Amino acid sequence: MLPPPIAIRVATEWLSARARWQPLEIVFWLGAFAAIYLLPESHLILTEIAWLGLFALSLDLILGYAGIISLGHAAFFGLGAYTAALLAKHEIINEPVMALLVSGLVAMALGFVTSFLVLRGSDLTRLMVTLGVALLLRELANRLGWLTGGADGLQGVTIKPVLGMFRFDMFGHTGYAYCLTVLFILFLIARRLVNSPFGLSLMSVKGNPLRSSAIGISVDARLIAIYTVAAGYAGIAGALLAQTTSFASLEVFSFDRSADLLLVLIIGGAGYLYGGLIGAIIFKFMQDYLSVLTPQYWPFWIGLVLVVIVLVGRERITSWTTPVRRIASHLNWRALAHRIAASSSERH
Amino acid sequence: MTVALETINLVKRFSGIIASNNVSLQIAKGARHALIGPNGAGKTTLINLLTGVQRPTSGRILLDGEDISARSTHERVRLGIVRTFQINQLFNDLTPLETIGLAVSERRGQGLDWWRIVGSRPDLVTEVVEILERFHLTDVIDKRTAVLPYGKQRLLEIAVAIACRPRVLLLDEPAAGVPEDERHEILAAVAALPSDVTVLLIEHDMDIVFSFADRISVLVNGALFVEGSPEEVARDPRVKAVYLGEELADA
């Protein structure tokens, strides 16, 4: 006996519900692209937000969707940054977009190799292992001074125009448009990925690895896959930093960078892709605003925010924004149109 | 008799304790085979060995004559050994629809599709809805699993396993903890399992065992103690002694 077509239609609609575009999402991206024309004097900070947002998106893929916590995500960011800077400095690949892709692939390779270290163990083990990998890479970059410039950083990098057409400028105009476009494309891919059967299987692995393997999922293979992809994203974020600043230094590998990243994602909330982007906006503007008020003490305020989030979110600090998002997801067009139609018919 | 699942001299030792002691078990194709035994008899260990969660110290496991002892858990599921859990192991944040959808897409080998949106294969959705209807889950299709009534969760537990199209299904106390008024629904679902699926039932409740099984194996202290038809096992004085002994010890 086959189920009636109506049941199948409803089921199809519910299954694809997560993938449907919400009005707020469209507003978000329209706003981001409108800023290219509307906020030219903020392009420098917006550029930073764009690559930080991409970096946090990368962490969200592993933490929010697969449950892998990391305190060393800067390893991939830093490797991407140095790769892009070296490619440009030695004129191996002059075109920035090509260099960006290569940087992403190099970071993916490192992600693949190190993914085997995060397959087993508790959160604490993962924190320590990822932290260790980032420290190792930082020290490696320090030692290989002939290649990386050591503690002075890699200087004398000149970035050629994007696609041979758009020259980078000191106001960040090209930089923002470039970073935002890259962010948007990679976001679309990530959005597709998390709403696919593969994305669903990641959530299942995060939720219950025992049952996941009991329905035939190779838990390890899925974790390796997403860790590798996320490493590529982080590498591209690092490459964007290097390309927009024409510089790479040891700081790209720093522990602070990995820790701040976790903070950014927690501020925005993990597991719905926008958390990293929203977190990046809040973090950067807060940093900007507070460091003007109290140049030395701005981390105090960041710390305070973190404590408040932990108190509000309790056990679920990575998804403390869930109630807000639930309200937002109810704001859909059809319901809105319904309400408007209802109120106008009341008036008549 | 065609044998679906067979163990040959299966032994599992945990630092000094023998949890499985030379178990040689044959389960016929299409059988309704029950595995019973007092607490600590090694039933759970046997399930873990069969599904690959634990590796045997020695001995072999054959599925349709093929040695699967070295296969990992997820490979065995692909080959057709699927289990349910005594304590629910479900995806709390997913809906029954997504849970079954996941199991079906994994079984079809489409679990790595990352460019396709969930729910974009009509034939898959049809199968998912069909399974949900069969297990009376249509009314909770879009609820988070965590908020479902316990009875519904138990049904989902079996439905997920069926979605994997098992050749051999290991049912670990399917009605455990289910309130009396929801119990018949679970038992009806178990009774209605496709007859070509071989079922190994691990159960404490003797009413369920004797109404369901056509063959019973009794496990005591990790070893196979008695095996036979329900009538033979019911009559066997040694089985009575074991269970009576347990009751006396409990008292």
Q: Keywords, please?
A:
heterodimer, A: 348 residues, mainly alpha, ABC transporter involved in vitamin B12 uptake, BtuC, globular, B: 251 residues, alpha/beta, Rossmann fold, 9 helices, 37% helix
Please summarize what this structure is.
Chain A is mostly helical. In chain A, 72% of the residues lie in helices and 0% in strands. Chain A has 16 helices and no strands.
Describe the fold and architecture.
The complex is a heterodimer of chains A (348) and B (251). By secondary structure, chain A is mainly alpha-helical. Chain A has a single domain (22-297), classed as ABC transporter involved in vitamin B12 uptake, BtuC. Chain A is built from 16 helices and no strands. Chain A has helices at 5-15, 23-38, 43-63, 74-89, 96-115, 123-143, 145-148, 173-194, 197-207, 209-214, 219-245, 255-268, 274-293, 298-313, 322-330, 333-347. Chain A is globular. Chain A starts with a helix and ends with a helix. Chain B is built from 9 helices and 10 strands. The model of chain B has no long low-confidence stretch (mean pLDDT 91). Chain B has a single domain, classed as Rossmann fold, CATH 3.40.50. Chain B has helices at 43-51, 73-79, 96-107, 122-134, 150-163, 180-191, 206-212, 230-235, 237-250; strands at residues 3-14, 17-28, 32-36, 58-63, 66-67, 81-83, 168-172, 198-202, 215-220, 223-228. In chain B, the strands form 2 sheets. Chain B has a 6-stranded mixed beta sheet, sandwiched between helices. A 4-stranded antiparallel beta sheet of chain B has the order 2-1-4-5, with helices on one face. By secondary structure, chain B is an alpha/beta fold. In chain B, strand 4 (58-63) and strand 5 (66-67) form a beta hairpin. The longest helix of chain B has 14 residues, at 150-163. The A-B interface holds A 1-3, 7-8, 11-16, 18-19, 192-193, 195-201, 203-204, 207-208, 210-211, 213-219, 225 and B 51, 72-74, 77-78, 82-83, 85, 89-95, 97-99, 101-103, 105-107, 110-120, 122, 125-126, 128-130, 133, 138, 141-142, 160-161, 163-164.
